[in-house]
Amino acid sequence: MKPALTLVLATHNAGKLAELQALLQPLGVRLLSQSELGIAEADEPHRTFVENALAKARHASAASGLPALADDAGLCVEAFGGQPGVDTAFYATRFGYPKGDTHNVRALLEQMQGQSNRRAALVSTLVALRSPDDPEPLVASGRLHGLIATEATGTHGFGFDPVLYLPEYGQTCAQLPPALKNSLSHRGQAARALLELMRQRWLPWAGES
Fold first, then answer.
1. Which of these, 149, 154, 193, 208, is most buried using a 10 Å CB contact count?
2. What is the cofactor note (predicted)?
3. Is position 206 annotated in a ligand binding site?
4. Which residues are tagged catalytic?
5. Which pairing describes strands 164-166 and 5-9: parallel, antiparallel, or unpaired?
6. pLDDT tens for each residue of 121-176
């Protein structure tokens, strides 16, 4: 089936590309990673997820000439006043570790030692636009609540999935089957909301027989 729409995804993260491609499959949307097109990562100078996602989407659209989709996501820990938030990708570097998922998890577990309040949420904001100057970008958000576990467990997913424990399932996000995790995840929630916005505003014919 010919894709209904091709968008450039403003990320070099293979995990995000695979997850979002699966989530947007119902509309036949095809995602091209900006790394496939030789597009460098955009600056992310803002302090909110939505502002950074918009900046990334505009950058990718301008460089590619295509509609673009960007995700800005992070972990918000209640005991840390919502941090690391938009700085999640660089969290480990605050504590002398290199950038990377494994180091982020290690740094978080060290900083959470002795904390009784372990409530946290993974947050995702998706922004899609038809051109860099689109005056009405589509914006959707999702939030997955859980507790920070005392150790990393599970092999699925990426980022902080191994340490976000979901009490109602008795497992971390990284222990859940991928299909279930995608149905619950912050990015899954945001993707479903974005799909509905696309159906309403970009593809009014989508889903018609």
1. 149
2. Binds 1 Mg(2+) ion per subunit.
3. no
4. 72
5. unpaired
6. 999 999 999 999 999 999 999 999 999 999 999 998 889 999 999 999 999 999 99
- Vertex 110 angle, CA 125 and 46, to 5°: 30
Say if residue 73 carries a ligand binding annotation: yes
**pLDDT under 50: residue ranges of the chain:** 1, 205-209
DSSP result, 91-130: GGGGGTPPSSHHHHHHHHHHHTTT-S--EEEEEEEEEEES
**Is 58 known to sit in a ligand binding site?**
no
Structure tokens at 175: 């222990």
Q: Tell me, what's the pLDDT at 130? A: 95
The answer to whether 80 is a known ligand-binding residue is no
Q: Under DSSP, is residue 201 helix (H, G, I), strand (E, B) or coil?
A: helix
Query: What domains, with CATH codes, occur in the chain?
Result: 5-202 (3.90.950.10)
What are the angstrom distances between the C-alpha of 209 and each of 44, 195, 205, 206?
41, 18, 9, 9
Which residues, listed in sequence order, are joined to residue 68 by a DSSP beta bridge? 8, 129
